[in-house]
Amino acid sequence: MLGDLAAREDVLALSLHVDYWDWIGWSDTFAKPAFSERQRAYAENVRSNVVYTPQFVIGGIDQVAGVSGMKMADLLEVHGAVSKDMLRIASTADGREVVAMPGPGAGALILVGYIPEATVRVLAGENAGKEITYHNVVVSWDELADWNGDEVSVPIPPAAAGLRQAVIAQSAEDGRPGEILGAVRVD
């Protein structure tokens, strides 16, 4: 399902691999403890202590556990009706920059580095012996700048070889990740 979402132009589908399944005998090569903590923080936002794999977080606020296609489609339609066109990528003499237009909220501008596709052979656990193809695998998640809702331009460092980049504007709620206010692919 994530592969289908990643192919859509109107959706920025990112895969943040978690490490809490590593105990079953195979460590996910893309998992990061910070991504597990992020998922737990999203759960806290909806007053839950339960996390799922797979779990989709749409717009930073709505969650779908498992692969519920109809619920996902409904939520994507709702979030698609909200304009998230407040981020733009511009080229300058010094490289690229993200321009955040004035917006209704505040938060952080986050630079996301991701691998468009990676196929991995799983060596142990419930998927032992299988080859799994992952899509839009996040390998870096770095805050570019705080954003107060005013127009701002921020330089974007070049991507490492083989990576694509996106910038998201995300609010924070009590130190936890909140609503996605805007998103744009850099390349």
UniProtKB/TrEMBL annotation:
Domain of life: Bacteria
Pfam families: DUF1223
InterPro entries: DUF1223, Thioredoxin-like_sf
Stored PANTHER family: LIPOPROTEIN LIPID ATTACHMENT SITE-LIKE PROTEIN, PUTATIVE (DUF1223)-RELATED, PTHR36057
Protein name: Putative secreted protein
Organism: Jannaschia rubra
Lineage of the organism: Bacteria, Pseudomonadati, Pseudomonadota, Alphaproteobacteria, Rhodobacterales
